[in-house]
């Protein structure tokens, strides 16, 4: 009896890991996605994938099977503050070769860690978007 329970638990774990791997593979193949880690004021980094939507930047957690983004940022409310190399405390928490991008979203300061090529795409996407208002652009 305990063997059946152990086998069922192992099968459930393997199926969850397989679903997470399949989701990650599908996200990476889609256009408009890039690997990133996000940190808010608390300083805790979360790995994930960012996806450009029509009017939003969506952040999906890496270790999840949910198709729903964990965070959404309205494009017209994002303000790019600049980028920097990761600090000593951040090097072990972000992907190798990443730059840390500082963004302002309303009153909230966000840090996104991504490779430099993804940063240039993000900055172009933000700057090319419309500003809230009729007929005005950034």
TrEMBL record:
InterPro entries: DUF2550
UniProt-recorded name of the protein: DUF2550 domain-containing protein
